[in-house]
Amino acid sequence: MEGEWVWVDSDIGVPIGARVTVTPSGQRLLVDDEGKQRSLAQEQEASLRIMHPTSVEGVDDMIKLGDMTEAGLLRNLLLRHKRGLIYTYTGSVLVAVNPYQDFPFYSGDQVGLYHGRKLGELPPHIFAIAESCYCNMMRHLRNQCCIISGESGAGKTETTKLILQYLAAISGELSEQQIEQQILESNPILEAFGNAKTIRNDNSSRFGKYLEIFFNKKGVIEGARVEQYLLEKSRVCHQALEERNYHVFYCMLAGATAEEKKTLNLGDAKEYKFLSKGGCIQCDSRDDAKDYQRILSAMKILTFSELQSNTQNNLETSDVSKSQHFSMAASLLEVKRSALAKSLTEHSFMTNRESVIKPLSADQASDCRDAFVKAIYNKLFIWIVEKINNVIYKKLTKSPKSSFLSIGLLDIFGFENFKTNSSAGFKVKVLFGVPQGSDATMLNKMNQQHRRNKNYVSSRSEYDTDFGVRHYAGIVYYDSKGFLEKNRDAVSSDMINMVKKTKNMLLQQIFEEELSTNNVKISNNKKIVMTPNNSLRFRQSLDSLMKALSACQPSFIRCFKPNNEKQSEAKLCMRQLRYSGMLDTIRIRKLGFPIRHTFEDFLKRYRVLLKTTVCDPKTETAAACCEAICKTEIQGEDEWKIGRTKIFLRDAHDAILERLREEKLSKIALVIQRVMMGHKDRKSFLRKRRAAVVLQKNWRAYRQEKLRRKLQHGFDRLKSKIRSRKMQQKFEATGLRRSISRRESHHSAAGLHERNHGQKRNFKAEGQCETLKYKT
Ligand SMILES: Nc1ncnc2c1ncn2[C@@H]1O[C@H](COP(=O)(O)OP(=O)(O)OP(=O)(O)O)[C@@H](O)[C@H]1O
Predict the structure, then answer these.
(1) φ/ψ of residue 352, rounded to 5
(2) What's the CA gap between 711 and 697, in Å, rounded?
(3) Minimal CB count within 10 Å: which of 54, 277, 285, 595?
(4) Burial class (CB in 10 A: 0-12, 13-18, 19+), 739
(5) Residue 696, CB-side half-sphere exposure with 13 Å CA sphere
(6) Annotated catalytic sites, by residue?
């Protein structure tokens, strides 16, 4: 039907989407995802597969896809990427497609938005994964790790930085320490010394990194530790076309002042062979001079002391080399030119009876020089990492590790399969360890040793120089040519003897191990200082990494590169999908029960979801209670399984149960709040009512008493008036008044006065009597 979506075959090896359209003339066409029109014949129709609606619209969790095929996954990722949605879940695994541009995804607002929210509550985001790690750590008191994988340039390093940014922000809300800032500032330093421009990525990490962030029990960052794995040393002396040496060289030469450069005898990058072998000095996306200032300020924060120019006094002149660069090198290494010349151009070896010194050919001498340069850089890098750890980790060494919780971020090497893969890769080192001898003898030895190993593919003929390794993603062929050279990192004892004489403390410090060892091995008539073999050391550090990881609860982030210059978007993503094992992950996660809890843990966490009328934990077993919870809360019998000691759940149910638990808890909290507030309010109401009654009572009593007293007073006066009137009437009635009048005429003046006075008294008494009558 018109408008319907179907799957059609394509040249990328998997079907792509296409939409049925009808032209005005009535002809039916298919318009595929790449915009190409295809005719639709009637006989074709039966073979077309209708697209599931979830694939038409796209889903934010690929477990929900109806078309659970490579094509389904690919279309979903590309569809979302086109809409600017770079993050997609696959259960709890996050797929991150590199946006190659700054999106407003990572602001403080976004941190606030995702903080405290469950995975799946909000659209997929790297902050949701960081939050989930943090929450799981705090909830289960268990260390977490994030395994971030993907091709070179897919965005692993940026992702690691974003997780760190998130954790630093939420920890910063809880305390005002400056440790978060110091941890964040270690990035520019590590990137300057350990990253370089490659043809795949302008800022490619050339070392493996495991950053463990330590939190106290309150969830505040207390420190961190960086572990580095196998820096690509060969880059210091050699770069492929269009690639650069490590950033720090270009940054320093572009950013240092003329005066600083003069003190250190530095020129421009293009003057140095080791910096210009790739024919690429500038990198368009980088500003070396600006980065230099950034590196210096980060170094200040991490308490690196300032670079000091070295004194050039006390230098003996020598005729060994007239080159200006040679003198400069000797001066910077703070050794006599003669000692440097000797160590570079001669080698001493032992016969049965004596020590013999032989000159080196020009090629041998430059090998010797390169080995020394690579060793210096590598050791300097290790020293820098340790120096950073001294600031961000040292405080924690005083307390036992168990007093902290941690989240580890593993940024593992980008994996690429070129037409020709150089054996310089660390992966080859992990497999085999590098023997002495030539490339051919090494290949021979490997072909013999690993003949029966199903992961090893021997060279097809004795003239072939390549061999294959069956990786998860497929067979990768490595060319053994130049293998030993690229991996040669043994520094000759002559060189070490030269280092012994240096006045440069840093140089002595970084070669401390070699200087303190007396273990000198003679191999091929050449004295080599034996420190623990590099591949052995690497294997040991990987073993301890594996141990640390397996003790943690892991989260996975798969970074994808959406395009590069040479391949179509879909083809490139398809390859990454296959290599990352995404489809298998989804199938396994869909089929399996990746979430598992012991009955006790499960019951402790989800006890609130249990109805005691259905199953009472006081009388029933933990297993029965767990079963009862699942029966009521999870739909579908097949969605969970009861084991002997644990309960197993499908991927999505962890989040669902958590949500239900939270809902239930907030309901219960509401009831508690309601009852508490009601109780509090009633108590205060009753107190107020009692007080009001007392007030009313007392007021009324007071008012009544006042009235009563007034009345009483009135009556008393009334009574006295009545009495006085009665007395007067009585007096008048007895005629006493007449005799008194006669007596009054006798005493006229006094009598007049007395009469007036008596009249007045009478008037007054009458007046009072009237008032009293009125008041009564
Ligand atoms: N989330 C993102 N937002 C914006 N740009 C990004 C993002 N992730 C990656 N990029 C861009 O892609 C580039 C390459 O990413 P990054 O260096 O993280 O890759 P990588 O996988 O670590 O590669 P390598 O294995 O070579 O070190 C970055 O320099 C940046 O320009």
Answers:
(1) -60, -35
(2) 21
(3) 285
(4) exposed
(5) 6
(6) 152-153, 157, 201, 204-205, 414, 416
Residue-range definition of the domain harbouring residue 624: 593-734
Q: Which of 734, 749, 767 is the last residue of a domain?
A: 734
Number of domains in the chain: 2
| pLDDT score of 322 | 59
Cβ(208) – ligand 1 distance below 6 Å = no
CB 559 near ligand 1, within 6 Å: yes
Contact 338, 316 (CB under 8 A): yes
Annotated binding site: 150-157
HSE at residue 74, side-chain half, CA atoms within 13 A, is: 24
Residues of the chain scoring pLDDT < 70: 306-322, 413-430, 432-436, 473, 485-489, 517-535, 565-568, 589, 736-737, 740-741, 744-776
Q: Which of 50, 68, 83 is the last residue of a domain?
A: 50
ipTM over 0.95: yes
Alpha helices in 501-580 (DSSP H): 505-510, 512-516, 534-550, 569-580
Closest to 74 in 3D by CA, of 469, 571, 548:
571
d(CA 630, CA 342): 77
On the CB side of 724, CA atoms within 13 Å amount to 13
512 within domain boundaries:
no
Q: Is position 176 within any domain?
A: no
In a domain, 759, yes or no: no
Q: In terms of Cα–Cα distance, which of 205, 197, 199 is closest to 286?
A: 197
